[in-house]
């Protein structure tokens, strides 16, 4: 009889302990959830601050002639180097002050890529069509070629972008053609570059035409491009935040070319 009573007491004590432990676990879970909610709230506040700071940055252009004004001969955009471009021509001048319905489908396509399909926008610009070689001709025909470019310095965090449409041939990549795909409407292409310890370095903002390692491609490619530039700071390209940025450089250069 005494043994049975002892066993009953042990069972009762075990049940009491289980209840206490279960209650503690529930209490701990609730506190963990509260802490997680607070942490998530702090993270959201930090993200909101970062996003607002990103939108408030000043962006200045490090390259010339974003509007792609032709050179004196009308054969290429002024201040841009040709790379392995075979030919270049202006196919459209997109003008501010025109009702959207009166513009061409191509002009509207380029404007829509940067949220500017309105009667008025910052300033008029030109769309160029570039025909380019698929590789470096001659003995090095298996080596990548590249498109038009300018020199720029890695003096700060930079964003490199343009509005681009692929027409035919191999699709260029990197720099202001980053993200370009065949068969899509005109789109904002580009990328952001960090700086870290490379502030005294420089680069040339030319997209690459990356052919295969086997038999070299022979067909030239064609793209259409507008508003290419390298600018300081982190521009959010995912939301089409691209425009005509003021130029920092030569004293005699038009700030908004």
From TrEMBL:
What is the recorded name of this protein? Uncharacterized protein
The organism's taxonomy opens as:
Bacteria, Pseudomonadati, Pseudomonadota, Gammaproteobacteria, Alteromonadales
């Amino acid at each position: 009889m005494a043994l049975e009573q002892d066993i009953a007491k042990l069972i009762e004590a075990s049940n009491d302990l289980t209840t206490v432990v279960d209650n503690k676990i529930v209490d701990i879970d609730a506190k963990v959830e509260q802490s997680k909610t607070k942490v998530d709230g702090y993270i959201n506040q930090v993200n909101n601050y970062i996003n607002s700071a990103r939108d408030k940055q000043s962006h200045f252009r490090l390259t010339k002639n974003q509007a792609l004004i032709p050179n004196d001969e009308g054969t290429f955009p002024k201040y841009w180097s040709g790379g392995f471009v075979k030919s270049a021509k202006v196919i459209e001048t997109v003008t501010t002050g025109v009702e959207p319905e009166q513009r061409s489908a191509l002009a509207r396509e380029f404007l829509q890529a940067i949220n500017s399909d309105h009667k008025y926008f910052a300033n008029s610009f030109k769309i160029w069509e570039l025909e380019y070689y698929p590789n470096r001709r001659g003995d090095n025909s298996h080596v990548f070629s590249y498109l038009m470019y300018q020199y720029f310095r890695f003096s700060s965090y930079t964003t490199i972008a343009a509005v681009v449409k692929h027409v035919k041939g191999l699709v260029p990549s990197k720099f202001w053609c980053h993200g370009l795909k065949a068969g899509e409407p005109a789109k904002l292409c580009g990328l952001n570059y960090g700086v870290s310890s490379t502030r005294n370095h420089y680069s040339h903002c030319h997209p690459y035409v990356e052919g295969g390692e086997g038999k070299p491609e022979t067909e030239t490619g064609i793209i259409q491009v507008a508003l290419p530039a390298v600018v300081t700071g982190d521009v959010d390209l995912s939301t089409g935040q691209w425009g005509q940025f003021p130029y920092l450089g030569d004293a005699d250069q038009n700030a908004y070319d």
